[in-house]
Amino acid sequence: MQNVGSFDRTLRIVAGLVLLAVALLPPLAHMSPIAGLGAWKWLLAVVGAVLLLTGIVRVCPAYLPFGINTGRRK
To answer: Which residues have CB under 8 Å from 13's CB, separation 6+?
Structure first.
């Protein structure tokens, strides 16, 4: 059951890629305001990966208990 719509999906994928890039790519990681804060980089990487994954599979487990569906209504 997909519960992530097109706009939500696009935002999740873009935000996930940006967070992963800031956290993991050496040039961006050293220029970011979190440089030197290893725990924050890992947190950004995890959040970025979760956003990217939920955007790709179009299912957000956090939406399920609340019945949220940002996709088209049938």
So the answer is: 51, 52, 55, 56
**Cβ(19)–Cβ(40) under 8 Å?**
no
Other C-beta atoms lying within 10 Å of the C-beta of residue 37: 12
12-44 pLDDT, tens digit each: 999 999 999 888 887 655 666 655 667 788 899
- Residue 10 has φ and ψ, to the nearest 5°, of -60, -45
Kindly report the pTM of this predicted structure: 0.82
Residue 65: φ, ψ to 5°: -65, -25
Token readout for 38 is: 């290893």
Sequence length of the chain is 74
The C-alpha atoms of residue 18 and residue 64 are separated, in whole angstroms, by 25
